Amino acid sequence: MTPARIPLVLLPTPMHRLNRLSAELGIDLWIKRDDLTGFAMGGNKGRKLEYLIADAILQGASVVVTCGAAQSNFVRQLGAACAVRGLRCVAAVMDLPYEPGHEVAVAPNSVGGNLVLDQLLGVELTHLPNGSWDDLFAATEELALREEALGNVVYRIPIGGSSVLGAYAFFKAAEEIESNPHFDVLVCASSSGSTQVGLSYALHGAQTQVIGVSCDPEPDLVEELRRLAYDLDDMLELDRRVAAEYLVLTYEFVGPGYGVPSEEGNQAIEIMARAEGIFLDPIYTGKAFAGLLAMVKRNQIRGRILLWHTGGLPALFATEARLED
Ligand SMILES: *Cc1c(COP(=O)(O)O)cnc(C)c1O
Predict the structure, then answer these.
(1) Beta-bridge partners for 307
(2) Is there a catalytic annotation at residue 262?
């Protein structure tokens, strides 16, 4: 089955070699520029939204309900997609939702960054105090039920747009790199999982090892990747059972927690900026590149390597709110 799609982003995104870093690191390093999707300040969520919003419209929805962290790149891009298609965008957010046992001691209580853009786009945000992911999901469902009680047709989108349609978008995205050159390794930041699953599924059998650098300490993520891969397989009917061990996810570079910058990530951002004039973000792509650098240094990966830049740049401009004195 081919899902419906509405065009939102500029495709294909550019892909090019990083000459200075390649020379410095002794590898053949390339970058895929999904930071340049040309929609709502770029990022990987635009690709998913082409299918998710098409589906929402097919289902006759007038309201889309989702959730995320306050600095969610997904909520920002969804807000733009809803705005241009005349849908309302309702989102429950917490500064730092956490997995019980993984609370980060200091909540950043962020301002600026994506929140500025959400407001500009007319996203209807419900900003909740920090709690667990389950608390956030429960609050989101309450918002959806409230809309339905008002007679509105609601389209629910899971966190990060990681339904099977999100994975399908990245299955299609892999077509943009399938020609030449051949990559030995593809590294991407992973959180809700559909980016990695779509790419892994597409490249399974292509001798390209896909490594997801988790930006979230949640141990169940691997399970979610597997489930998404099965769902994608059911949808495409390609009978390409992607083996669990092929869905490689490393938790080594999460740093202090989900949504919190890491020292290595910040260093990696600086290295990329000064060598290539390309900006990465502190929550996802900086950590992914830190992982890539560490794995190269340890000789765990070599050859022709592709960093899939998933965007996230507004987070560079998010700052901590000053607490009341
Ligand atoms: C959402 C996001 C990711 C992770 O993508 P998933 O499909 O949710 O795993 C990576 N980088 C950035 C910048 C993101 O916004």
Answers:
(1) 31, 187
(2) no
Distance CA 237, CA 226 (A): 16
What is the pLDDT confidence band of residue 222, given thresholds at 50, 70 and 90? very high
CB 122 within 8 A of CB 79: yes
Share of the chain above pLDDT 70, in %: 97
Model's pTM, two decimal places?
A: 0.96
Count of beta carbons in the 10 Å neighbourhood of residue 321: 13
**Is 72's C-beta closer than 6 angstroms to any atom of ligand 1?**
no
CA distances from 105 to 102, 261, 279 (A): 9, 13, 28
The two structure tokens encoding residue 56? 């929402």
| Residue 37 beta carbon below 6 angstroms from any ligand 1 atom | no
* Interatomic CA distance for residues 282 and 80, integer angstroms: 22
- Catalytic: which of 22, 72, 110, 194? 72
Kindly list the distances between the CA atom of residue 98 and the CA atoms of 76, 147, 218, in Å, as whole numbers in the listed order: 20, 26, 9
Q: Measured on CA atoms in the order 11, 178, 210, 294, is the torsion positive or negative?
A: negative
